[in-house]
Amino acid sequence: MEWGVNEWVAVGSAALALASLVLNWLVVRRQTELQYETLRAEMDSDVIAWAHEAIDSVAKASTLARGRGAMYPADEFRRLAHETSQKLSAIADRGRLFFPNEEHDRHGQDKEAAFQGFRPPILDSIVFACGRLDRMAADGGPDTESAEFLTKCRRLLVSEAQNAIDPRRRKQMLNRLAVGRLDDKTSAFKVAADLGEAMEALYPGYLLQRRDAAWIAAREEMARRRR
What we know:
- It is built from seven helices and no strands.
- By secondary structure, it is mainly α.
- It folds into two domains: 40-167, Four Helix Bundle (Hemerythrin (Met), subunit A) (Up-down Bundle), CATH 1.20.120; 186-227, no CATH class.
């Protein structure tokens, strides 16, 4: 079978149409991914801002517990504790906009819609911190037990916020887009090791693991593998 000009033109047109279809599909796919990342970044930014305020407030509660009677006289402690407690309560409620209760259709049907169901752990950390601060007496010396409890609340909060934001995924995305700081040859691990060793020299036993040259090399190798 011999093909004439018309047949070859038809085949060429079909090939161009197929190539155009594939190119358009790739462009649309890329735009969709970009839109998703943009929306995710906006949502993450809101959660990060909320988490910053929550972490600061729980840390403030812990500081009040450790400084009761020493840094904060009874009247000042009572005022600051009241302010911090009210702030924690408001932060917990704002957090419900990001972290709704679970099983809302099976528990707490007599409550308002946002309060039906079971609180997620990230909100528990704030509610429990608020409750502990509310129940602390203004008189007395440093409340180490309450301070340790509040520290555990803060750690739970940070861990759950990190799970929600997934900073490792964000870091991978930023690495793909990175165009600056590529010529910075300073090892952050070396600087961190020097700081850690300085603390060890001042306070023997401070470091759980000495930060020698082998430690620096191992950390830098791990960082290279993640890139």
